[in-house]
Amino acid sequence: MRYQFQFEAVFAEADRILNGVLLTIGLSFGAIVLGLALAVLLVAAKSLFGRWVGMLVDAYVELMRNTPFLVQLFMMFFGLPLIGIRMSGTEAALLAMTLNLGAYATEIIRAGVDSIHRSQIEAGLSLAMTKRQVFQYVVLMPALARVWPALSSQFVLMLLASSICSFISVPELSGTAAIIEQNTFRSFETYIVVTLIYLALALSLKVSLLWLGRRIFPRLSSLDRLDAKAEAA
Amino acid sequence: MVTFGWPEALFIFRAAGWTLLLTAIAFLIGGLMGGVLAILRLSRIKLLRRFAAGYILVIQSIPVLMVLFMSYYGLSLFGIELPPFLAASASLAIYVSAYLAEIWRGSIESVPFQQWEASASLAHSPAQTYRYVILPQAIRISLPPTVGFLVQLVKNTSIVSVVGFVELSRAGQLVNNATFQPFQIFTLVAAIYFAICFPLSRLSRHLEKVMNASRPH
Predict the structure, then answer these.
(1) Mean pLDDT of chain B
(2) What is the spatial distance between Cα B127 and Cα B137, in angstroms, rounded to a whole number?
């Protein structure tokens, strides 16, 4: 069978695609900023407060990491209205993405915090810093610098997972794809175009996060490299 | 109106079986593809290395949902009408192959290079080196991340509901459409996923500890 590719119909919907791209970028950016903030707060709570807080944080992390994002999305969208919290699809999507990414980022940052040598913390305490000050000034930034690559990969995975928000009719990129497909009956062409856009988005996000990491942690990452060299020697 | 009761719960439990089956098939086929890709990725021939690296980069940079749509609609263009179950397994296998290939490549590379030299000095062929020296060690190293990835796979099977295949998430949706009791239903669905995934997560973490403890330094 010969198939005639017709991309014109898809390109005619460029405006719609652009809106979808913007919403995908907006959702991902929002989830990255909010999720990162949430994770830093949770890790801080875990290392500053007692065992009970730690166990609560662990429970949240395990719950999020061991259930599908799709089910979490359904919980926010269908479940929350029952207890009076009514949200639009886009708001539910942002909430689900934030909570999901927050859990993964908590786990990653905690690993970074664990990797900070005890002597650093003792040094901070011996300077009469409070535990909170030690966490804020001594532990947090080096920990973030160390796990930045892992965090970046998680951010990219979240960008890709945002496509699932189309399941609750959020008009982000894959949601628009579904609409365009219904309008044009050009399924394959639509998904080729949209897939290429996702590819471009994911690769640009990856590159900009690398660049950002070098900008935010220039001194710290070079120190780490020195550490690695010293260990290798 | 239908309320959420035993028949509905049973329907959801049965669908969990499909989730497990889908996971097993995707893991087996994807694992085979991933193994080949990992070896291509480390091949001495530049073209093969490039091909494998490109495939992995592309698949890891697009949503699984798009892989699913492309294989579902793409193949039907060539007159191949894939039943949803096949389209679902095929696209999940493609997704699995890219991630396992990277995990396994990393594991093979983390076998110390002296092992390659030692094997070569025993006049082993590359195939023999892999079989008797490198793979036994690499498989041990790869076990924790592979089990960890299995958790991702179980969760990601949820998206194949979009091509009409009734697995756990789709079953939850269907029951919800009939009963409008989302909290009970999706709590049950989430609990089943959790019951599958949590032991795997724990196993992965346990294996990681065991592996680290057995390291000489």
Answers:
(1) 91
(2) 15
What total number of domains does chain A contain?
A: 1
Would you tell me how many other CB atoms lie within 10 Å of the CB of residue B60? 18
CATH code, domain with A184: 1.10.3720.10
Answer whether A70 sits within 8 Å of B194, measured CB to CB: no
CB contact under 8 A, B63 and A160: yes
- DSSP designation for B159: G
Domain with A100, as residue range(s), is 8-232
**Integer Cα distance of A44 and A38 in angstroms:** 10
Residue A85 lies in a domain: yes
pLDDT, one tens digit per residue, over A101-127 is: 999 999 999 999 998 888 888 899 999
Residues 6+ apart with CB under 8 A from B66: A163, A174, A191, A194, A195, A198
**Which pTM value belongs to this model?**
0.90
Q: How far is B127 from chain A (nearest CA, A)?
A: 31
Q: Is residue A192 part of a domain?
A: yes
Please check whether residue A39 lies inside any domain of the structure: yes
Selected residue of B67, B73, B78, B185 to mutate for chain A interface (largest A Cβ count, 10 A): B73
Any domain includes A106: yes
- Average pLDDT rounded to a whole number, residues A152-161: 96
